[in-house]
Amino acid sequence: NAGVTQTPKFQVLKTGQSMTLQCAQDMNHNSMYWYRQDPGMGLRLIYYSASEGTTDKGEVPNGYNVSRLNKREFSLRLESAAPSQTSVYFCASRRTEFEQYFGPGTRLTVT
Amino acid sequence: DAKTTQPNSMESNEEEPVHLPCNHSTISGTDYIHWYRQLPSQGPEYVIHGLTSNVNNRMASLAIAEDRKSSTLILHRATLRDAAVYYCILGTTDSWGKLQFGAGTQVVVTP
Question: What is the rounded CA–CA span in Å between residue B85 and residue B9?
């Protein structure tokens, strides 16, 4: 089992560029999540998908869109990147009501 | 949403126990107490959760106060690998697994 994988690991964008962060899990979990983590802070929820075909906003959804492509994959898109979106992005999937498995993260810098 | 309060940092010597406190005075009757930890440059990992009774697993123990307004995560014998940020999080089973992270407690383990 690879668990939760994320691509890319690092990315540098210029303001206004777009990109998609990819996430996949091979644990057959229904629910998946996208979080961001700014320096010295805890994670904040951007979007989540309770099951295939559904997505909902989290705490900080502005500037992002998501797609639950199938049960395995949950992507996060930045349509027009801004410096305020410089952060580390974590994808997670949920094994039980209480246990989430996190990916290794994508470190994004917007200049 | 019920919030948690944790110390910013704690230090421990290797092979000694670590007691990490968490205050959650506004906890509701349906809130579970979750603990996650985040090793440097990694995504968070699940540690333990509980509702009312004390809980043990291979990683740690969770002691919950009788009035549930506080809890303590106990690492029985700290190792260098336990150096991480530890997050105490409240959540209910009907919240779609959404986790609200605070700043956590940075645990430093000294050889």
Answer: 8
